[in-house]
Amino acid sequence: MSGVTSINLVENALLVSIQDDVTDTEIVELQDTLSHRIAKNNVRGVVLDISSLEIVDTFVGRVIAQLAGISRLLAAETYVVGMRPAVAVTLVELGMYLPETRTALSLTHALSQLRRG
After folding, report:
1. Beta strands in 1-116 (DSSP E)
2. Which domains does the chain have, with CATH numbers?
3. Which of 1, 29, 37, 55 has the highest CB neighbour number within 10 Å of its CB?
4. pLDDT per position as a tens digit, 21-43
């Protein structure tokens, strides 16, 4: 998956890095892989790192929402980290508020929130 750099276990969370050039096929693979890793590792959270995204569109917004939905159904909280101000503005302008996700300033902050559980 070239659009997803990695899925790494950090403490009790899976860190997923999403690249700018992610494709539909890679997203389907990511959803499958992520759901299996959540179940296998019994993680408390998923941290989606979108710091490499310069811009977003409805596709990327939908991807984030779908990954958060899958995680929630498998009892893992989702945090989005690395969001640029322009990305936040664009998501709001597109009407994508992502109610199932939480945001954190960094991986450290997301892990701190998950520890507090």
Report:
1. 4-10, 13-18, 45-49, 77-81, 102-104
2. 4-116 (3.30.750.24)
3. 37
4. 778 888 889 999 999 999 999 99
